[in-house]
Design brief:
The protein is an all-alpha fold. The protein is 75% helix and 1% strand. It folds into 2 domains: 126 residues, no CATH class; 206 residues, Farnesyl Diphosphate Synthase (Orthogonal Bundle), CATH 1.10.600. Helix 10 runs antiparallel to helix 16 and helix 13 runs antiparallel to helix 14.
């Protein structure tokens, strides 16, 4: 499916419909880039169309939304030419997200994302259907690597080509550059903990902080505030809020990955377990089982971690153990504590209306149970 540019304005002001405006900006940008690639290399153009489908096929647009409210909270305008440029710039965060998801699914050998085949699975199937030479899985992996890289490259292009005044773009470069590196560092820490089998809570929280919190909430808020020329104390307060909410968001995602409804999450329940993810939930479960002298239960959980053949009964057994040893309650309590400290940090920051209220609402939305 080729997405055409949206040639009519969205009726609502940006503040009232940030996600819809982001969607428009992404559709416009990807349509132009797809047209250019299709003219140069039609075969690659069809691959780019798949990337566009992936980007526009789901997601809550949380990252650009947080960035927008960082901009607004620091005094940035809600309408006008400059506001539209900022909206285009922060929409580029969704392309960074696309890069992360496409590569993460490949590294984790995930088959489903948002209820559809992941990119590497889609291209492996395309290879099989057309009877091409070579291994389908290798072709699918190559396509996913290249399209993820393309999404990251286009994120930079979209950000730098958004039409921002030069002084605003320069001010925003430090958080933009830091965010890209932190995202990749978080991805590496994630696979490292799987490889080393590190069960510590400290390792799990480090992954949550670097892989999710930094580029989902903290740096987008930093980016928006920097675009508006916010003073350091405002940036620091927003980052403190964003770090704790971002970690809480990941902890909620971990719980949904184990207990959520596949129809809601778009991924099979228990996938994190099969992939060997050393989440805080699993860390707490193992620690509490060992502390209670339940070594056999701890070993059962360890055996399930990374077992890609684990069936529904095996997942259900681990769920029961996590509930029984109190790991789920511990993670829920940690989420509540993080949300409280985040909101306390937010209250200490003087923000332009209505940013404070909206950010509080976003914090609740990002961390509440959705299934």
């Amino acid at each position: 499916m080729i997405h055409e540019p949206i040639d009519r304005p969205i009726d609502e002001p940006i503040d009232a419909a940030v996600a819809a405006h982001v969607e428009r900006a992404l559709a416009d940008y990807l349509a132009v880039r797809h047209a250019g690639m299709a003219d140069q290399a039609p075969s690659f153009g069809s691959a780019v169309a798949s990337l566009a489908d992936f980007v526009l096929g789901g997601g809550k647009r949380l990252r650009p939304t947080f960035a927008w409210w960082g901009w607004r909270g620091a005094g940035g305008a809600g309408t006008g030419v400059e506001a539209e440029a900022v909206l285009r710039a922060v929409s580029a965060l969704e392309l960074i997200q696309a890069c992360a998801l496409v590569h993460d699914d490949l590294m984790d050998a995930s088959a489903v994302r948002r209820g559809k085949p992941t990119v590497h699975v889609e291209f492996a199937a395309r290879h099989r259907e057309r009877g091409w030479a070579g291994a389908p899985e290798r072709f699918g992996a190559a396509a996913a690597i290249l399209l993820g890289d393309l999404a990251l490259a286009w994120a930079d292009d979209m950000f730098t080509g958004a039409g921002l005044p030069a002084h605003r773009q320069v001010a925003a470069l430090p958080p933009w550059q830091a965010m890209r590196a932190e995202m990749l560092a978080g991805q590496y820490l994630d696979v490292l903990t799987q490889a080393t089998g590190d069960e510590s809570g400290e390792a799990a929280l480090s992954v949550a902080r670097m892989k999710t919190a930094a580029y989902t909430v903290e740096r987008p808020l930093h980016l928006g505030a920097a675009l508006a020329g916010a003073p350091e104390h405002v940036v620091a307060g927003l980052r403190a809020f964003g770090t704790d909410i971002g970690v809480a968001f990941q902890l909620r995602d971990d719980l949904l990955g184990m207990f959520g409804d596949t129809e809601v999450t778009g991924k099979p329940a228990g996938d994190d377990l099969r992939e060997g993810k050393r989440t805080l939930l699993m860390s707490a479960g193992l620690r509490r089982a060992v502390a209670a002298g339940r070594d056999a239960d701890a070993e059962a959980m360890r055996a399930a971690l990374g077992d890609d053949a684990l069936d529904a009964d095996g997942v259900e057994r681990v769920r029961g153990l996590l509930l029984d040893v109190g790991a789920v309650t511990e993670v829920e309590t940690r989420m509540a504590e993080l949300t409280e400290t985040a909101l306390t940090a937010l209250e200490a920051v003087e923000l332009a209306d209505p940013a404070g209220r909206v950010l509080r609402e976003l914090a609740v939305t990002a961390t509440r149970r959705t299934s």
